[in-house]
Amino acid sequence: MSNNVNRLTLAIALASTALIAGQAAASGFQVREQSAKTLANALSNATAGAEDVSFMAYNPAAIGNIDGNQVAGGVAYIDATFELQGAEASSRSIPGLGNVDYDRGGSRQGGETATVPSFAAKMQLNERFDLGLAIYAPYGLSTKYDEDWIGRYHAVETELKTIDFQPTLNYRATERLNLAVGLRAQYADATLSNNIDLGALGARQGSLQPSAIGNADGFAEVTGDDWGYGYTLGALFQVTDKTRLGASYRSEIDLTLEGEVDYSSDNAAGQRVLAGAQAGGDLRDGGGTAEITTPANLNLGVYHQLTDRLALMANAEWTEWSSFDELTVEFEDGSKPSSTTENWNDTWAFSVGADYALNQQWLLRAGLGVDESPVPSAEFRTPRVPDADRQWATFGATWMPTPELGITAGYMHVFADDGDIDQDGSKEENATKGSLNGTYEVEADVFALSLDYRF
């Protein structure tokens, strides 16, 4: 086993996590919970709703629909559950032994909870211009499996945290048309870990008996971070007094994640193999870089005030996931770069929703949505994010004790399709991980609370 192979495996895991570790409420790696109002309407009002300054995260021109100055803040709590059913895993075929079963009987659940905060503010500079700032987390996930679970060589812990800083300038071109541009400075920080089958390495080298395969594990933890920069464009058009159209575009962002790898083992047999591997140049603590591109996306929306009490809305979002077709990893020791194929597909998400005003203080919200997964087939699905097509059902309410203050609570339940996983142990990129097969069952609950104040 070469130093290059081990570093390649872990560096690819780092970069892949930064891209695919999306919340269970959205496909791919997206986090869309920047407003309790949009969540309560299943994101159907994201582009054309423009109800408060937090909508700037979806459409920067939203701030042109708000007179005066305003601040808004919120938090979303995500509780996701991943469970692998009918799981099978084994080592790569070993001469004279074949494939060794990796099942130790541990839990196959990997979901954890996550908290997603957001903040936005704007001020009206004059009759033509508005200036805003949005701070939010566009991507992120926290998942953790038991260290003895059947897929431990593919993933144990995954944590991704991102934050976008988006200064925005809106131009009120006419009384009905707003045009906006925003800059995006994005910081990403990732930590992930997985076990290493040091027993298999020792058996191949002859230093351990074959019975050690799958029973003398090591542990690898990878960390990495970077800043990236992009832009967002938006338009909001008041067609009539009752109908509003919105469109927004968010550019791709290039990131170069710099990672550090740390190896360890908590058992005597594994420690002996690890010490020998490090002395020979393998499994040394070190690092590498992976250049990745977070995809561009386009949003189109419509908002219509049907009656004095009832409003209807719809949204469509296209994401250019096909930009994530290959991942190239470079090593700090100057070794030849290596690549792996991802083959993700572009996707669409659609949602519809409605608001009903009980009175001047209470507004009820609800919505439905569907979201395609970018993962093309079982061979590209991973246990870090067992992504699949999903549907949403949401409801919530806004309370306005005064005309200037709004408090909103929203709830979303995510129904995800079952997703088969077929990681082939004979593929070179799975040389140290082995095979992993089964069917993932995924669901999530999201709770959001936000506050907006106009002054």
Q: How are the SSEs ordered, and which strands pair?
A:
Blueprint (H helix, E strand, L loop, with lengths): L2 H18 L15 H5 L29 E21 L22 E12 L4 E8 L3 E5 L12 E16 L4 E21 H8 L11 E22 L4 E8 L2 E12 L3 H12 L6 E9 L2 E9 L4 E10 L6 E6 L6 E4 L5 E11 L4 E10 L18 E13 L2 E12 L2 E5 L11 E20 L1
Helix pairs in contact: 3-4
Explain what you see:
- A hairpin with a 4-residue loop joins strand 7 (217-238) and strand 8 (243-250).
- The longest helix is centred in the N-terminal third of the chain and has 18 residues, at 3-20.
- This protein is elongated.
- It is mostly beta strands and 455 residues long.
- It has a single domain, classed as Outer membrane protein transport protein (OMPP1/FadL/TodX) (Porin), CATH 2.40.160.
- The chain has helices spanning 3-20, 36-40, 198-205, 268-279; strands spanning 70-90, 113-124, 129-136, 140-144, 157-172, 177-197, 217-238, 243-250, 253-264, 286-294, 297-305, 310-319, 326-331, 338-341, 347-357, 362-371, 390-402, 405-416, 419-423, 435-454.
- It is found in: Cell outer membrane.
- It is a multi-pass membrane protein.
- This is Long-chain fatty acid transport protein.
- InterPro entries: OMPP1/FadL/TodX.
Order of helices and strands: HHEEEEEEHEEEHEEEEEEEEEEE
Task: Estimate nothing, just give the exact number of structural domains.
Answer: 1
Number of strands: 20
The radius of gyration is 24 Å
CATH topology-level fold name: Porin
Oligomer: single chain
Our estimate of the beta-strand percent is: over 45%
How much helix, percentage-wise, in residues? under 10%
- The strands making up the biggest β-sheet line up spatially as 1-2-3-5-6-7-8-11-12-15-16-17-18-20
User: Could you give me the name of the CATH homologous superfamily?
Assistant: Outer membrane protein transport protein (OMPP1/FadL/TodX)
- Helix/strand-derived category reads mainly beta
Stretches where pLDDT falls below 50 for ≥5 residues?
1-22
Number of helices: 4
